[in-house]
Amino acid sequence: MHTTRIRPLLGTVAAAALAVGGVLAGAPAANAAGVSGPAFWVDGEQYRTVGTTTDFSGTGAPASSFQPIYAFPEDTQANVATAAPGDPGYRGGRWVVTEVLLPNGYGAALASGDLDDDGVLDSDEELWAAAAAGDLAIGGVLRYFECPVIPLPRNGG
Q1: Taking the CA atoms of the chain, what radius of gyration do you get in angstroms?
Q2: Cα angle at 113 between 77 and 156, to 5 degrees?
Q3: Over the chain (157 residues), what is each successive 10-residue block's mean pLDDT?
Q4: Could you give the 3-state DSSP secondary structure of residue 4?
Q5: What is the per-residue pLDDT for 151?
Q6: I need a labelling partner for 119 at 20 to 30 A (CA). Which of 6, 41, 42, 68 fits?
Q7: Beta bridge partners of 40
Q8: pLDDT confidence of residue 138
Q9: What is the DSSP letter of 33?
Q10: CA pair distance 102, 120, nearest whole angstrom
Q11: What predicted TM-score, i.e. pTM, was given to this entire model?
Q12: From CA 102, how far away is CA 89, in angstroms rounded?
């Protein structure tokens, strides 16, 4: 007798699982479930993360509770965050993801912002140097979310 109530419930659960899977499949690698490879830079060091499906947009949380992370266009470079665990002001992995625009192309931003000549903009200091030169602009907020910050092992893997 209870099977008539359980079958619709199972169908709802299966549909929800497929919907979540579809969202994750369409998300960038750093936002999908599982430990990522190198995902973003903080002060010249690369970090990885575990993708989560959290979304704090519209929650009313104060802006000061989120750490900026700057999302570069796909196929340019990894994102740049402003702090990692142990840094002053680190907010526990709560991020406001903000779009990076490259009005003169990535090469121009790299030429004006790569202060240590390592071939990548790998700190917020370098990001702001490119912005001061007019080769990088900060766009709108893409989302608010939470994910951990995990140092890469010393062997890079």
Answers
A1: 19
A2: 40
A3: 40 34 35 70 91 70 85 95 90 91 98 98 97 97 87 69
A4: helix
A5: 86
A6: 68
A7: 47, 79
A8: 97
A9: B
A10: 14
A11: 0.72
A12: 27
Helix (H, G, I), strand (E, B), or coil: what is residue 40? strand
pLDDT of residue 42: 94
Determine the pLDDT at residue 31.
41
How many Cα atoms within 13 Å fall on the side-chain side of residue 128?
Answer: 8
- Which token pair is 120? 């990548």
Task: Provide the phi-psi class of 81: left if phi over 0, else alpha when psi is between -120 and 50, else beta.
Answer: beta
Cβ–Cβ < 8 Å for 117, 79: no
Using CA atoms, how far apart are residues 105 and 76, in angstroms rounded to an integer? 10
The reported pLDDT for the residue numbered 19 is 32
Q: Structure tokens of 58? A: 């519209």
As a whole number of angstroms, the distance between CA 51 and CA 59 comes to 20
